[in-house]
Amino acid sequence: MPQPGQPGAPVPPPAAANPNAPGAPAAQPVPRVPDAPPPVGQPPRPNSGRIGPAGAAALGAAAGAVGGFLLTRPGAEPRSLEGVQRERREFRDRDALIYQEPGRTIVRDGDRYFLRHDENERFRALGGDVRQERRGDQFVTVYRGGDGDEVVTVTDAEGNLVRRYRRGRDGGEVVIIDNSYRGGPRAYADYVVDLPPPPLRIPRERYIVDADGADERLIYDTLTAPPVAPIPRRFTLDEIRSSPDVRAYTRSVDLDTVNFDTGSWTLAPDQVQKLAALAKALNEAVQRNANEVYLVEGHTDAVGQPVDNISLSDRRAQSVAEILTRDFGVPPENLTTQGYGAQYPKVQSQGAERRNRRVVVRRITNLLSGQNQ
């Protein structure tokens, strides 16, 4: 039986918020992101592609891809956006465009973009012992770190994450992410969950914390805080990644001072130390609770093609996660990544805007477990 707070544990009904309680601060609504995708509850567009993971994988297989991802020769992974563009292949399925590139599938359905990446690419990039085997219609990948513990990642035939857990040298297991209850493949747009904006009872600067001006204690408090308002249920990782309304229920740390060269996802050595305070807070949080999960998001400004921006932002998020592990010892299994391109700007601008070129880190442990504390 899963323990409280772990994926798979019984979900208690959310506690009702009482805005009239004595001394309760006035609630401030969190505005919706102006250019966020339309709610999934709206009727689908006529003849919408609504391509699902299986459809994208089927098209990818015809192009020489496995699990929905275009393969590359070992040691020949692209190192720049130009290299990705050379390897990218484009397909159309009804109204949807599918882009296959090394390690990633990007789907454009109307005005929305969805990206799936190879869940094991980050572990291979870290080095160490990585082995994979197929069990029926699933792939099981085992990563052995320097401490001897193993991280086991189970993905389905389309490359979607089913389960991830840590197995210690003593045989004990700690579940990190469990998506096994989510059911079969669904259309990408069906992962978008529509929720009302949460009432905000904390100062705005404590809801979105700029790492540049924050001390270590504020970063730690932000990354260990419960949701800012009660959540109605547990969510799958796919739903969290795809739903800005769901992510809005968590506080976040913004890193808009970490700079990448144009068209690159490699972080210069002088930029790495800017992650030290964040890494210290993450390590302290994971030591306190071994099944914490943090989403590392990549965002760009609106300059450039959307498909390039979403690919570049996803690779930058992965690069930051790799550095947090390789240089600062943050356990890789407690991190997950996602790129969003220019879909969710911090500042409304169609031009070059440094504040929109950022990495965001948020705690999604409660979203995955359905627990409000």
Q: Choose one word for the global shape.
A: globular
Outline the biggest β-sheet. Answer: 5 strands, antiparallel
CATH topology: the name is 60s Ribosomal Protein L30, Chain: A
Alpha-beta content class: alpha+beta
Give the SSE string. EHEEHEEEEHEEEEEEHEHHHEHHEHEEH
What is the helix tally?
11
* Gyration radius over CA: 20 Å
What does this structure look like?
The chain has a five-stranded antiparallel β-sheet, with no helix packed on it. The protein has helices at residues 53-62, 81-87, 121-125, 204-207, 216-222, 237-242, 244-247, 269-272, 276-288, 306-326, 365-369; strands at residues 28-29, 65-66, 69-70, 89-93, 96-101, 104-109, 112-117, 129-135, 138-144, 150-156, 161-167, 173-178, 199-200, 208-210, 252-255, 294-299, 335-339, 358-363. β6 (104-109) and β7 form a beta hairpin. It has 373 residues and is an alpha+beta fold. It has a single domain, classed as OmpA-like domain (60s Ribosomal Protein L30, Chain: A). Mean pLDDT is 83; it is low at 1-26 and 29-49.
Quickly list its features.
18 strands; 373 residues; 60s Ribosomal Protein L30, Chain: A; alpha+beta
Task: Give a brief outline of the structure.
With 373 residues, the chain is of the alpha+beta class. It has eleven helices and 18 strands. Mean pLDDT is 83; it is low at 1-26 and 29-49.
Topology of helices and strands:
Elements: E1 28-29, H1 53-62, E2 65-66, E3 69-70, H2 81-87, E4 89-93, E5 96-101, E6 104-109, E7 112-117, H3 121-125, E8 129-135, E9 138-144, E10 150-156, E11 161-167, E12 173-178, E13 199-200, H4 204-207, E14 208-210, H5 216-222, H6 237-242, H7 244-247, E15 252-255, H8 269-272, H9 276-288, E16 294-299, H10 306-326, E17 335-339, E18 358-363, H11 365-369
Parallel strand pairs: 14-15, 16-17
Antiparallel strand pairs: 1-13, 2-3, 4-5, 5-6, 6-7, 8-9, 9-10, 10-11, 11-12, 15-18, 16-18
